[in-house]
Structure formats: C-alpha cells, structure tokens
Amino acid sequence: MARAASTARHVTTSIGATALQTQFDAEPVTRHHYIRPVENVVVPISRHLQLVELTERTCKWPNGDPLSEDFNFCGNEAAETGPYCKYHARVAFQPAAERRRNR
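The structure assignment produced for this chain is given below.
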C-alpha cells in the first residue's frame, strides 16, 4: 500500500515551567501622576482598645489582623460625624474627584 505524502507538522517545545507563561511584547508605560503635597499630617498614636472597650466617642479604626490576638482598634476621640477620629476619617472618606484622579 502506498501512503499519501505526509505533511510535516511543527511542534513547539517548551523548556522548564513555561506552560502558563504569557507571551507578549511589553512596552514601558509612563504615567504622570500628580502627587499632592501633604500638609502637616499627624498620625495619632493608637490607644489599642479591644472591642468591648469601644464607646460612641472612640475611633473604631481596626489595627491588624482580626484573627490575631494583638488585634485592636485606634480608640482615639472620634469626630461627631462618624465612627473614626479625624485622621482615620480622612483616610476612609476621600473626595470622589480625588479617587478618580488616582485611577
């Protein structure tokens, strides 16, 4: 029996753990971010309060991993308008325009 002419099949081989490696030509991306100067930022010293020690007037900003034994809350005096002290309120509640700029 005569066999039909076989066509050559090209098989690529990978060396090492490259099966999931992404193949692309990357170009450096230049981003021009304006970094706003920081004005007199004072980071408060945490009082390291436990959950049962919090009141309506204490900052409820969590510090650390909730599953670890040294987990605590800021505990400084909270503002009248929310659950956090002045510093943590600025971190938690950023103006919408500033969030859009950072993206």
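Interim note for the steering committee: Residues 13 and 19 are 10 Å apart (CA to CA). The chain has two helices and two strands.
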